[in-house]
Amino acid sequence: MSLSGHYETPHFPALYWPIGVLPGEPQYLYTVQDAWRFTLFWTLIVFELCHLAASSYALLVQWRNWKVMLGVVPVYSVLAGVEALMAGSVVGLLLGAVYKAGDFRMSTWLPFIWAIINVLVLILSSFSVQGGL
């Protein structure tokens, strides 16, 4: 699927309702840079929301120690940004490379779905698993 001269990168977030889609309504990503950018942006958003929820819970639980707790939200926010930058970049570049190698078009929903998968992996990896093989 070669890019013709009329391809324009969709505006972020460019999500559409996938059920009963009218012709021309879906928007697709064709380049590795677009896949990386959309995945990175969605991962930043989802990670920040997840870390904001965790820091809000920490504030509610530890409200008596408010002087120490003032630093929790900024620290969690910076950590979320660093984690999202790494995870979003790796996944976005891999997604873009796979779709480019297969000469496929990528729905704008896929970066959002992979951002959700990234945060679920982050949450699952935070639990210690007892047991072995």
Ordered list of secondary-structure elements with their pairings:
Blueprint: E1 28-29, H1 32-61, H2 66-69, H3 72-101, E2 106-107, H4 109-125
Helix pairs in contact: 1-3, 1-4, 3-4
**Averaged pLDDT:** 84
- The separation of the N and C termini measures 45 Å
- Sheet/helix structural class: mainly alpha
How would you write the strand order of the largest sheet? 1-2
Number of strands: 2
Helix percent band: 55-70%
With helices defined by DSSP (H or I, 4 residues minimum), what is the helix count?
4
Radius of gyration: 19 Å
For the largest beta-sheet, the strand count, sense and barrel status come to: 2 strands, antiparallel
**Shape call:** elongated
Low-confidence stretches: none
Task: Report strand %.
Answer: under 5%
Question: N-to-C SSE series?
Answer: EHHHEH
Compact description:
With 133 residues, this protein is mostly helical. The chain has helices spanning 32-61, 66-69, 72-101, 109-125, and strands at residues 28-29, 106-107.
Walk me through the structure.
The protein is mainly alpha-helical. The protein is built from four helices and two strands; from the N terminus they run βαααβα. A two-stranded antiparallel sheet has the order 1-2. Helix 1 (32-61) packs across helix 4.
